[in-house]
Amino acid sequence: MKILPTSLFSLLVLTGSSHAALLLHYAFDEGSGTTVTDSSGNGRDLTLNGGSTWNATGGAFGGSVNLGGALARTGGVSASTISSLNTVTGNQVTIAFWANVNSESVGSNPFTISNSNNSVGTRILQAHLEWSDGTTYFDAAWDVSSANRVSGDLGDVSSDLNHYIFTYDGDAGQMAIYKNNVLQFSNNSAPGGAINWAGIQNFELGAFSFNNGLWAGEMDDFAMWNEVLDEQDRTQIFNSGVASIPEPSGAALLGLAGLGFILRRRR
Ligand SMILES: [Ca+2]
Fold it and tell me: Strand order in 35-36's β-sheet?
């Protein structure tokens, strides 16, 4: 039992770092008002714009939101800036959400994160679900290279709420799109490169204000991490929601509880 202190320290370190950093999470359970609360605790609230409405129930988990793309530049959810995102670091990202697109092939953006709202070339993280050719595109670090893209036809995206996960690893040059927890498309030879967190000036859900890439549909449980989530976390999100993933402090406590169980068993 003399090794206990070292083991305990190692366990705390391991469990404390075993989960990615949740940057923001929108559960869309508000049901009224115009504030979209960031459930991650990071204070990155958004504003619900005209043309969008709440669903008090019927989302993937609790309520959801209908992002109305009919009103040019006013639909969707946005923040002119989320300045706190400018301090994020890391060359990886995971973006996950549930969506039911109102109509196929309308060339619109479920999310757009850019370093300007006045040029198509300044996108940092964005997707088309779907573009007018029926293809879904995910672009990351587009301001580094327009070849940082993964794409493909996801089939019918307008008949039901489906779960989507987009991942980018700028160090490994790997990108992926998952639908309902199944890998659909990957790009393992992307140029990669750093995500320009410091340059983020524009954050929109359901819109890309520059090109009126308005997205009409139902969305729920939107979240973003600055790491590529592993299979265990992806499965947890898909089955039980973003809120079900333990934060590092919770994981450490679970680790302590587990250690206690092991020690009892050894006695
Ligand atoms: Ca919800």
Answer: 35-36, 46-48, 77-79, 202-205, 111-114, 123-128, 136-140, 149-152
- Which pTM was predicted? 0.83
Report how far residue 67's alpha carbon sits from residue 129's, in angstroms, rounded to the nearest whole number: 13
- Residues 11/256, Cβ–Cβ less than 8 Å: yes
The whole-number pLDDT of residue 81 equals 53
Pairing label, strands 111-114, 202-205: antiparallel
Distance 59 CA to ligand 1 centre (A): 5
| Element (DSSP H or E) covering residue 99 | strand 92-101
3-19 residue pLDDT tens: 444 444 444 444 444 45
* CATH number for the domain running over 20-245: 2.60.120.200
What mean pLDDT is reported for the chain?
82
Instruction: Name residues with Cβ closer than 5 Å to ligand 1, which is an ion.
Output: 27-29, 59, 61-62, 220
Q: Structural domain boundaries of the chain?
A: 20-245
Q: Ligand 1: distance of its center to the CA of 63 in Å? A: 4
Q: What is the average per-residue pLDDT within 111-124?
A: 75
Packing angle, helices 4-16 and 248-266, rounded to 10: 150
